[in-house]
Amino acid sequence: MNKDIVSIIQKDQLYNLMLKGERADGRAFDETREIKIETGIIEKAEGSARVEIGNTKIIAGVKISPGTPFPDTPDVGVIITSLELIPLASPEFESGPPREKAVELARVTDRGIRESGAIDLKKMCIIEGEKVWMIFIDIHVLDDGGNIMDAAALGSIAALLTATIPAERYGLGEDAPLPMRDIPVSVTAVDIGGGIVFDPSLEEEMVANTKLTVISNQEGAIAGMQKSGNGSLSTDQINHIVEVACKKAQDIREKFLEI
Q1: In angstroms, how far is CA 213 from the centroid of its own chain?
Q2: What pLDDT does 97 receive?
Q3: Which of 29, 64, 98, 251 is most buried, judging by how many CB atoms fall within 10 Å of its CB?
């Protein structure tokens, strides 16, 4: 589905519902869809997870191997995040090199993990200046039902929380869990005709003026934000989104206690 394909009638319907304080699927403006998290789904990966948010489905896998640190951080582990928009997930997705949307989603996911200090990367150093553990996070979108951003971020953290450093395989000691320190959670909202709705469906994303993603850590501090779209947000709207997003993140974080 493309914005050009969304009919004027459909747009008008969503806008009219917004004016009445309603959404097409019956949710409240700040209500998220059901979230399902399943871990350990890829046998060959060091960590993996499948996440569903409504009709949106993603799989995240984690591979860990020794590598060379960056010159400016010789004693810090490396995180590399990639995301693939599988053509079968949406008519809008095409095969080939990562498109701009995929790159943006991967970068925001990576930033939330990095800036929240979710992983103690200092403990991922093997030999300073020579060898560190490299963490590769691969995300595959299986079905786009809207709000891929939050699903990708949740899937990545779920996979990391269950990941094991394969030290024995490389003759570097005993296997151990990743040194996790935090659980950042991404919450996305969109502006439709001046109304703010959270966890947008695909149809809501298509007609939205702008989108704002807020990533917060366990303390409620903001670890990352990303705005997309041509529209603008007022200060009041931004404050509202941040406040609700941080509260929603705490509720969503409870899901990880079930892992």
Answers
A1: 9
A2: 55
A3: 64
pTM higher than the cut 0.85: yes
Q: What's the number of domains the chain is made of?
A: 1
Domain-embedded: residue 12 = no
* Full DSSP string of the chain: --TTTS-HHHHHHHHHHHHTT--TTS--TTPPPPEEEEE---TTSSEEEEEEETTEEEEEEEEEEEEPPPTT-TTS-EEEEEEEE-GGG-TT--SSSPPHHHHHHHHHHHHHHHHTT-B-GGGGEEETTTEEEEEEEEEEEEE-SS-HHHHHHHHHHHHHHT-EE-TGGGTSS--EE--B----EEEEEEEETTEEEES--HHHHHH-SEEEEEEE-TTS-EEEEEEESS----HHHHHHHHHHHHHHHHHHHGGGGG-
143 lies in some domain = yes
Mean pLDDT, residues 86-101 taken together: 67
Percent of the chain with pLDDT over 70: 92
Domain span at residue 64 reads 32-258
Asked if 86 contacts 201 with a C-beta cutoff of 8 angstroms, the reply is no
Angstrom distance (rounded) from CA 174 to CA 40: 20
Give domain status of residue 2, yes or no.
no
Query: Has residue 41 been placed in a domain?
Result: yes
228-250 mean pLDDT: 95
Structure tokens at 73: 């951080």
* Domain harbouring 183, CATH code: 3.30.230.70
